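Hi U.,

Before I forget, here's the chain from the pilot set. I'm dumping it here mostly so it's searchable later in email.
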Amino acid sequence: MPTISPTALDAMAYALTVGHDHMAPILGAALRGDIRLAIALRGINWQKTVLETSRPTLLIVGDDDHQSTGPAAWPGELREYAPAAMIHAAAADVPSYQLALKRCLEERRYVLVETSSTRLLEWGAYFATASRKVLLDIVRPPAGQQHPVPREKMH
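Structure:
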């Protein structure tokens, strides 16, 4: 039976409702019970959403909401949780989320940080100070663009 945190269930329902197809690989794996999916919310101790499990665990950190704070606002030692992580500082895309799922299955624990392009270097420096080397996958926006698009430029 799948082990999915209540926050992750809410995120799944929302993603499916609004057509976030980039989440399909991860949501499918979670619903099949292939991975444990947890969502970390700013200011809440994420460790309470990540239960020990024999399945690979993917922890998604949502820091790209026009209020991006970088790692300072996230309680707990995210950089120590997993041997690999993705700093995703661009618009969502299916290949990046497929890579996150692949790494999660390979490494057993994986952190996917969804952040703004202005916080990319800060998150990179944060993971660089882990007590062990963390394999980092970096997704940047195209040259000359930023993520998320500033509200004043949204239609």
